[in-house]
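Many introductory courses stop at the sequence. We go one step further.
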Amino acid sequence: MSLPILDLSAARNDACALNNVGVTMMMHGEFDSAVTSLKESLHIMRMILAPNASPESVKTFSNKKLRAASCIVSKMVKDDAPRTVSVRALESNDFQSLLHASFSKSCPSSVFHAILIRNGSSAGDECDQPDLDRTSNLMLLNYGLACFLLSMYGRPNANGRRRSAFSSIGYKTLLMSYTYFSSSQEIGDAQDLEQALYAAILLSYISLVLESSNEQEKSIEAKELQQGLLSAVEKETLIFQNQSVVAAAA
């Protein structure tokens, strides 16, 4: 009897759904719950990338965690009262919103952006390694942000050691994601441009984490890196726009 084959696209979509629930939790200020859901979405990605992954185990884990997270979200009370910090959602396939958010992060702000990951393929479709890598690193961005926000705006009665631990986890996770998105040596096409914009957002968060940890010099270095990256992005964006105008006129 042949063993069942893991449907990578379906499993990835389950992980994305759990990621998106985590983003919703962040938008409601439920950073504790968000950290848990986002960590579980990353666990699903690790499961499906593991050798000899069990389709049944992946599906059972995904369904269980999605049900639990969705139940938490359904019980959240809509609260329109102003918050100390605001989290807004960016859709992973919305380039213009990503462009705007990246440049808005060049200014001090209490608004943070988390990424809603939209499914790029249907169940049964081929899901390649680059797509899985990109998805995993967008989840790392969200998880790192949630950990940082939990350390800063979590439960008032949380002890200092717990806050410090989540700040450290947030920093390391954001740095991992930044390493991936900053891997391109130059901006040669639209995909490189998108990666650079995510890297710029990550640098703004890394700078804030360092600042909150009294690492002022490193925080300034991260901010300067961000400004340099945005300058390069702005230049390349103008080039792409001019090329589009020329092509349209031809």
